[in-house]
């Protein structure tokens, strides 16, 4: 009805079709987890890096691989281990006897979709290797800068339970992830459906039948469309106020950076586009607020002792601020 | 072999004895003692001078109580006398001691908890349901004269603002009919989901979308479109609870 009443300003046909296709593709293999799938798609559309967190066996890696499979782009997988070195990720200069010169051998970071599995198993030194790549889309080795090809997206997974052999991600790196998506246990019904699907499945490899939905060029086009979506000035102020409140909240030891406000608006634009709108509403901002902020803030020790989570504090902050209307 | 060992031990013991038997004579230089020959003069305390000093005001150290007590001093004197009396009593004294100790412990615990910054509700297991006070709402829908403001907006042909006021008026009506619980932090979609009646919810959802397209999306709205939107809002608001 609204489409009839108001002439469409932005053509979202291709985007809507792609989103539906990705949802269907992921939905065939990932049972339930609707919010996780939506945030994965939103992250892809918003040109952000995603951190999937969940206990072992909840299909974090599978979800990341499925998203990568939906795009016909180069895909790399890096299994982070305690002995991984930065050169194993970025690449290294190798001496060539033929030319008697050092030649740079590209590491697995040179790809479009990079799956970093178990990211918190590598020490800070190796994790730091991703800083420049994730933010500036380039790497610098031996004084030479190498641009990374667009689209460039890091999909990382981590297990929040393991303590042994893991390293907490540096704050600077956490801030570079657009969303931290918490993958939770499925419901009983969903778990039964997982078993039924597995039982009826003929092929061993579910990923073989996945057909890419978007080309590299289409991803670029969709991303530029989303960047141009309309945001009412009061909603920009609303997002900024949410972030600002994290810096003044007594329950928090560390608030979110301005990058969080930018991420919130970009994420909200992607959610709006997925809903077929070319403008953002407060609901879109609220929907992405926790995935954007939860990994960027640190609770005060007292609140941690009380058993509160970053999501609880963000919810309190949102409830404190009046919806612009 | 054994014989040789025994002989060796015997001879060793004999030599040790021989050494200890010798005496060493040490000659020391005699110390010369000097006798202090200065004459010592014995001095006596002047009794008269002591008597004179003891009569002087500066050397009288008596703690004389102030002649007039203030009401505050009188209060504390009475208070401490009462405490002494109570503590002096075997029964009330012991009870009071226990009470005072309990109060002191409670005060220490309270100060410690406040200093650490722990939440008292932690003890009752309700810490997660922290209440956050709302910041003062800039606009209370129950205090707006909607008809007046809508007519003002229409006079200036500000149809976008008029639609916003229509939507706020609808929220007020729904709140008055107790179909929604109006709160500043709730989003439009939250209100949509709050309406129990499915038919009414669908209608309100359509109105909400219209409002969002016009207000958040800043879609252009002319007089004709506004009249259509206005009619939809009017029909919805006429419905009984």
From TrEMBL, chain A:
The keyword Kinase does not apply. Keywords: ATP-binding, Nucleotide-binding. One of its GO terms (molecular function) is ATP hydrolysis activity. InterPro entries: ATPase_AAA-3, CbbQ/NirQ/NorQ/GpvN, ChlI/MoxR_AAA_lid, P-loop_NTPase. Pfam families: AAA_3 (PF07726), AAA_lid_2 (PF17863). Residues 245-317 form the ChlI/MoxR AAA lid domain. Residues 49-179 form the ATPase AAA-3 domain. Belongs to the MoxR family. PANTHER family: MAGNESIUM-CHELATASE SUBUNIT CHLD, MOXR FAMILY PROTEIN. This is Magnesium chelatase. It comes from Pedobacter yonginense.
UniProtKB/TrEMBL annotation, chain B:
Keywords: Membrane, Signal, Transmembrane, Transmembrane helix. Residues 1-18 form the signal peptide. The chain crosses the membrane at residues 95-118. This is DUF4129 domain-containing protein. It comes from Pedobacter yonginense.
